[in-house]
Amino acid sequence: MKKKISIKNLLPRYLILLIVAFLGLEIFYFVFSPLTVYPVFLILGLFFKTTLLSESTILIPGNEIELIGACIAGSAYSLLLILNLATPDIKIKQRLQLLGYSFVAILSLNILRIFLLSVLATKSIFYFNLVHMFFWYVLSIVFVVAIWIYLTKKFKIKKIPFYSDIKSLHKLTKRK
Prior knowledge:
Helix content: over 70%
Largest sheet: 3 strands, antiparallel
Strand order of the largest sheet: 1-2-3
Radius of gyration: 20 Å
C-alpha cells in the first residue's frame, strides 16, 4: 500500500527548520558549550593540573585552551537537525531517537577531539596546528556524514533528505 503524499507531513518539519534557521546557531552553542567544555575540563584533569579560567577557557600546563564557537561544532548539530527534519516518513519517536543518537555521537567525538588536540598542544604546537587543520577541514565533515549514514542504516531509513520531499511534491502536482 502506497503512503498518501500530504502537505500536512511536510509543513511541520519545514516550519521547524525555518524557526531554527532564524534562531541561528546560538541555540546549539548555548546548549552544547557547557556540555563540551566541562567534560573536556574533567577529562584533562585526569592527566594534567587544570584550571577553568572562564566558561570557555581551560588552562593546562603551558597552554590556555580557548573553546570558541567553532570548537563547539554548532554547525554539525545544525546540519544533523536539518538532515533529520528534511527526511520524510520518520515517526516522531524514531525522529527523536535519531536526533538523540546523532547529537550524542557528535558531542562524544567532539569531546574526544578537543581532548586529543589539547594533549597534542602540550607536546608540539606545530603538530597541534597540523592536526587541528586536518580535523577542521576534513574530519568534521566526515564525522557528520558518517554519523548520518550509520544512523540511517541503523534505523532503516530509506528516504533521502530534501530529494524525497521534492519528489513527493512533484507527484502531487502531477495528479489530476
